[in-house]
Amino acid sequence: MSDSHTKSRIRNLATTHLPILLYCIVGLGFLFQGVRYISATELMPYHLAVIETPWEGLDASYQTLFLGLLKGFGTGSFCVGLAIILLALIPLRRGSRWARWVIPVIALTYTSALIYVTSFALLPGATPILVTTTLLGFVIAAVISSFFSADSDAG
């Protein structure tokens, strides 16, 4: 195998398969987060730290409200994760140009908004902020890799 052929294969992997892999990691992160919140039976420790009240100390109506909000957020996170995975595995993998734009719009918008909201609502350094920031890094890497692929398709 020639050196140029090896470089071509590496470039192909980095620009074609890498964004799909990275988007799937992001999607799985949101799927897992969604399942975690949908199945929650009480607030997470980082939520309780913000309100400075133990779960048992909350009135039943507040517990119901908070669980409803968690499950609603979890459902949204699950749906966004599923959408990212399906868009990466089907149209992006097939080379659809529109998918190169739609997936970043969904992933960057949701992830950035989530970082903003959690940074506003939670204590600094809370686990969701760190996890979502990491997912944003994967999204940015996938976007860059995907658009390098677009450049190589144009040439």
Report on this model:
With 155 residues, the chain is mainly α. Helices cover 83% and strands 0% of the residues. The chain contains 5 helices and no strands. α3 packs antiparallel against α4 and α4 packs antiparallel against α5. The longest helix has 36 residues. The mean pLDDT is 90.
Domains, number? 1
Overall pLDDT: 90
How far the N terminus sits from the C terminus, by CA atoms, comes to: 23 Å
Poorly predicted sequence stretches spanning 5 or more consecutive residues: none
Tell me the overall shape. Answer: elongated
Helix content: over 70%
The count of strands amounts to: 0
| Strand coverage percent | under 5%
Please trace the helix and strand order, writing H or E for each element: HHHHH
Q: What's the tally of helices?
A: 5
Describe the main β-sheet briefly.
none
What class, by secondary structure content?
Answer: mainly alpha
Which radius of gyration do the C-alpha atoms yield?
Answer: 19 Å
